[in-house]
Amino acid sequence: MAAARPKPPAFPTTAELRTIQLATFACSRENGAEACSLARSLADPLMDNPLLPSFCKDTVWSIVQQAEPAATNSFRRRDELDRAGELLLRRCQRPTAATTRKQETAPRRPPAAGGGAGSGGPAGAGGS
Questions:
Q1: 10 Å Cβ neighbour count for 111?
Q2: 89 phi, psi to nearest 5 deg
Q3: 73-to-42, 53, 68, 79, 86 alpha-carbon distances in Å
Q4: H helices, E strands: number in the chain
Q5: How much is the pTM?
Q6: Would you say 114 and 123 are in contact if contact means Cβ atoms under 8 Å apart?
Q7: 70 CB neighbour count, 10 Å cutoff
Q8: 33: part of which helix (H) or strand (E)?
Q9: What is the per-residue pLDDT for 86?
């Protein structure tokens, strides 16, 4: 018998990301062990997905680390969890063809001419 091949990694679906987002918001709002445990357990597998970019994993890491019940549910704690939940969809969705094409065709700015650090303006514009 042949061994079953592991399923190749895939980008999470929008529905999966939305489920993690809602669990993160619930942890932020309720500050309970069950809600926070759910948010952590849903987000944690994304850390091992090789297709996800580092800025997505930074957001996921924030959720995994911050989704813990706190003695006081401070505004700062809620705000940090809510921010991570909001960024999750934007940072972790599969890039669309339109997004990739837009990045490839965006004009690149040439490097600044002759400007060393502290040049302060165009050459020959001295005040002497």
A1: 7
A2: -65, -40
A3: 21, 31, 10, 10, 19
A4: 5, 0
A5: 0.70
A6: yes
A7: 13
A8: helix 33-43
A9: 96
- Cβ contact 88:9 at 8 Å: no
Q: What is the DSSP letter of 125?
A: -
Q: First and final CA of the chain: distance in angstroms?
A: 86
- How far apart (Å, rounded) are the C-alpha atoms in residues 79 and 27? 11
Name 70's Cβ contacts closer than 8 Å, sequence gap at least 6. 31, 77
Tens place of pLDDT per residue across the chain (128 aa): 556 677 778 899 999 999 999 999 999 999 999 999 999 999 999 999 999 999 999 999 999 999 999 999 999 999 999 999 999 999 999 887 655 555 555 556 655 665 555 555 555 555 55
Q: Which residues contact 92 (CB under 8 A, 6 or more apart)?
A: 11, 12, 17, 46, 52, 56, 59, 60
Other C-beta atoms closer than 10 Å to the C-beta of 59 total 24
Q: Give the total residue count for the chain.
A: 128
State how far the Cα of 84 lies from the Cα of 42, in Å rounded to an integer: 14
